[in-house]
Known about the structure:
Rossmann fold, 8 helices, 2 domains
Amino acid sequence: MSNSAVSSDSIPITLIGGYLGAGKTTLINKLLSHPGLPPGTAVLVNDFGDINIDESLIRSESDDGTVIGLSNGCICCSISDDLSKALDALREMPVKHIILETSGVAEPLRVWRHCHYPGFIPKAAVVLVDASNHAKRSQDKYVGSLVCAQVEQAHLLVLSKTDLNPGFELNRLTPQLSNQDPDLIDTLLEWRHIDETSEIASSSSLQPAFRTYTWHQAQDITQALLTDVLSTLDESVDRVKGLVATEDAGLLLINRVGDSLNMRCYRQSAQPEHLGLVFICRSSRSHEMHSAASGLGTSSIASQIARLDAGN
């Protein structure tokens, strides 16, 4: 679509993409608390459970829990797997700019095309790159093509976790910023992709299959058991995240990306409604991901989940 065909009233959409664990949630949190976030900015996210919005910012919540009004005049809205429905709802609100967080396994170009929706126009695709994991992920036989496609389809690249890999360099002509750059949020809000004729072809034929499984916690477990289970998962598990109640360490916020496991105490005043973990698994063939007993890809993963349920 050419710029001349776009109405001056069209609402611009900035995409925030990047592979699982690249730091999209951290960036969205930073964006929501930014004092210069313009009123009329809507932030579309995949799951409120990942977003820790400062309680002082929250002003009101919709009846269905999908839209939260913030005290700075901005709106945070859950996508709920239906982008068109979310955009239709936002069209009825005083929205001037949309920040859209894409799935960690989505190609920016595919989402970009969906943003050519009546009343809206894509503005820029910003992709986060995990400096600590990118080299390994980009060479992975299952997800390497997807990781590379996300980088290739970006209009602005944001390098995250550079503290874990200070010498990391991404040899591309695409403009790049560090997630520690003091002007990151202002730059992100203002960035606009002008030439829409240079779209890169989608690599969907090489895209791996992904499945998720949610473990709902029914009883407290020990931190030692939790650590052991999460440290010995099958390599097909790309991401684990959630909140787990332990007998000896209290409530823990869990974040596992690849081989890197992070656990920290959950210190929010409001207690979460649900406890458990979300496992995101991958495979080169969808049938390898099927397991009637657990919904997981391999028996080894299922057995580890069974250990959590049994508490030993």
